[in-house]
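Below is how a single chain appears once it has passed through the pipeline. First comes the sequence as given, then the structure the pipeline wrote out for it. We keep one example in the README because the format questions we get most often are answered faster by looking than by reading.
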Amino acid sequence: MNAPAPAREPAVMRFARWVSILGHPFVMAVVMAVVAGLHFSDGMGGAPTALLTTLPILPVAWLMRRQVRAGAWEHVDASRRSERPVLYLVATVSFAVVLFGLWWWQPQSYLLRGVVGGLALVLACALVNRWIKVSLHMAFAALAATVLSLLPSVVGFVLLAALPLIAWSRLRLARHTGVEVVLGVVLGAVAGLAIRFA
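Resulting structure:
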């Protein structure tokens, strides 16, 4: 007798998962860096330099893979508050290394502000982690949407329009509460405003 086939994931959950993947902080960081790089350089020349500012992604991605494989994390989202301190530590060190390298290599670069803003956002999320697990998806989506819409760039307005959909996906997948999602938006928007106007 054959075992029953595993139940297929409902279409709404598959859609929520895809929205979550497309709204991932890694995706938002790359989009923000490349679009800003193109905007400020008036051509493709700024895109490679801008991509360098996304280097903090690499150690964080390595950590996620390692923690999941070791069974220390349930999944790559680090959805438990207890899983976040090591994530914030690696992200902070990674941002600091890129910040130092960029300051040494191109101290006049507009990208310095973006890296400082990303570092400040990570530190703010780490600070409040004792009480609440901020949605990093929403924080980085709001950061990218704020910075890019203030350039102004059409990509920024698309991201602004996508924020409710990303929020829905995080709630639908039960990764966050409403308060965690809203706090992510607030922190990301404040960091974005600081990057543009501080």
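The CA atoms of residues 9 and 169 lie 15 Å apart.

See the next section for the split statistics.
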